[in-house]
Amino acid sequence: LLVLVLYCVFECTFTLGSYPQEWIGRGVEALAEWIRGLLPVVWWSSLLIDGVLMGIGAVLAFLPNIIIMFFFLSLMEDSGYMARVAFILDKIFRKFGLSGRAFLPMIMGFGCSVPAIINTRTLADEKEKISTIRVIPFFSCGAKLPILTAISGAIVSYFGVGNADVITFSMYLVGILTAVITVLIMRSTTLKGGTPPFIMELPTYRLPKFKSTMFYLWD
């Protein structure tokens, strides 16, 4: 059920997010062309248009995906489901020297590493927090997906073997495996220490509140 829920979250995030992402990209490009026609062809105009404007546009293009993912995570958390996921996975994570709390930041790493790293503030133990932050970049975020698919397509076209989708999925699995191995190494060497106790209250299942979800997205 957890795998199915997460699959639906990621599918909706990238499918629904692709539309506003495309609209923002087109809008920024149109604005850049309009400003380019007004300004003289000098070095600072290129800096303003290709650097500042296009740079801000690239950041804004990822905003819809982040908002959609946070929306679904808010529903999972407010409904009481996320607490149960963390509780169930605590037994598995303890084998790697982490508690169940580390699950959410790692999963968020598939959407964007920045909010995932920010979310590690919920981890009580400093060593657990550091080790989690260090492995989050191994979880391929949305910004890395175009690069992974391009590499997969190049491998298939150059060598004439394999399937681009399977290769891309394999890269995701390699990232997860690398993260697990890295955590094991850190928790047995430089960040050696006991796994903090995991005590949490399991709230009753309930319908998420619209107001709290909007506060979560705004924050």
Walk me through this protein's architecture.
With 219 residues, the protein is an all-alpha fold. The chain is built from 10 helices and no strands. Helix 1 runs antiparallel to helix 3 and helix 8 crosses helix 9. The longest helix has 37 residues. The two termini are 29 Å apart. 22% of the residues are buried. The mean pLDDT is 85.
Summarize the structure.
The protein has 219 residues and is mainly α. It has helices at 2-38, 43-61, 63-78, 81-93, 103-108, 113-118, 126-135, 145-159, 164-188, 210-218. It starts with a helix and ends with a helix.
Topology:
Elements: H1 2-38, H2 43-61, H3 63-78, H4 81-93, H5 103-108, H6 113-118, H7 126-135, H8 145-159, H9 164-188, H10 210-218
Mean pLDDT: 85
What portion of the residues fall into strands of 2 or more residues?
under 5%
Inertia-based shape: globular
Helix-strand pattern: HHHHHHHHHH
Helix content: over 70%
* Main sheet specs: none
- Extended strand count: 0
